[in-house]
């Protein structure tokens, strides 16, 4: 037997004929035409090299091969039906699943802790992994299911990715407590007179802050490059360097903080997932938790701006 020729639909027809004992009634059970049932039976007979049913009056009597096959066939069909049903259902209270994220530091420090706190009571066996993925591999990782969610402040334009703003923030200037730059309101001249740490996730990737300064005909003196926001406070407290960090990260540290002395567009952080995951119940559930948390985080961001 060539297993590549097996069509599971044929065994659904086989089960219906065995149950009904008649091709017409089997067609009614399956909601297809009698010729379609006859055609499927002919294909299955050819596949198994056995007549399977012998007509006795108006009744289709199963052969010994059919009698031996019906039990395993029904078990296989039930297993498939149950698997399909389970794939369309998600019970967070009993589900065991790990969601894969690739998030920058702000999201890891702000959104993910809120997510874990929110789901821990509802879904005790759900875990969150957050790891770095090269930007050029993100779309493939999302499409293959290797990655469930990706966040970035830079927009991605792939047509198969769904995008949602998950957080908004603004850059502020930070330095060690007692830094002389913060003795009076920070001016552009004072800002530029000090040395800086620059944060960029990828080598050679332009920094929006420096692009804006270049538009003003200005340039910072950068003496250190880092690809993580979270490491910057420990450097600042030991030096006279300045850095520009997202406000919702900077506020958690004992640092001197000032607004930028020039205008900058706000930071938008986008959550991405692949369109193929839209209808997956588990993915939809965790998405709903994320987007609810995102709304409260964005509301707190707006409140901090008014304050």
Task: Please specify the SSE layout and strand pairing.
Layout: H1 8-20, H2 23-30, H3 34-48, E1 53-56, E2 59-62, H4 64-87, E3 97-102, H5 105-119, E4 126-130, H6 138-144, E5 149-152, E6 161-169, E7 171-175, H7 188-193, E8 195-199, H8 208-215, E9 221-226, H9 232-236, E10 242-246, H10 247-250, E11 256-259, E12 267-274, H11 281-306
Parallel strand pairs: 3-4, 3-5, 8-9, 8-10
Antiparallel strand pairs: 1-2, 5-12, 6-12, 7-10, 7-11
Helix pairs in contact: 1-2, 1-3, 1-4, 2-3, 5-11
Protein name: LysR family transcriptional regulator
InterPro entries: LysR-type_TF, LysR_HTH_N, LysR_subst-bd, WH-like_DNA-bd_sf, WH_DNA-bd_sf, YidZ_PBP2
Keywords: DNA-binding, Transcription, Transcription regulation
Give a written overview of the molecule:
The chain has 3 domains: 3-87, Orthogonal Bundle (Arc Repressor Mutant, subunit A); 97-168 and 269-306, Periplasmic binding protein-like II (D-Maltodextrin-Binding Protein, domain 2), CATH 3.40.190.10; 171-265, Periplasmic binding protein-like II (D-Maltodextrin-Binding Protein, domain 2), CATH 3.40.190.10. The chain is built from 11 helices and 12 strands. It has helices at residues 8-20, 23-30, 34-48, 64-87, 105-119, 138-144, 188-193, 208-215, 232-236, 247-250, 281-306, and strands at 53-56, 59-62, 97-102, 126-130, 149-152, 161-169, 171-175, 195-199, 221-226, 242-246, 256-259, 267-274. Helix 1 packs across helix 4 (64-87) and helix 5 crosses helix 11. The termini are far apart. The model has no long low-confidence stretch (mean pLDDT 87). It holds the Pfam family HTH_1. Keywords: DNA-binding, Transcription, Transcription regulation.
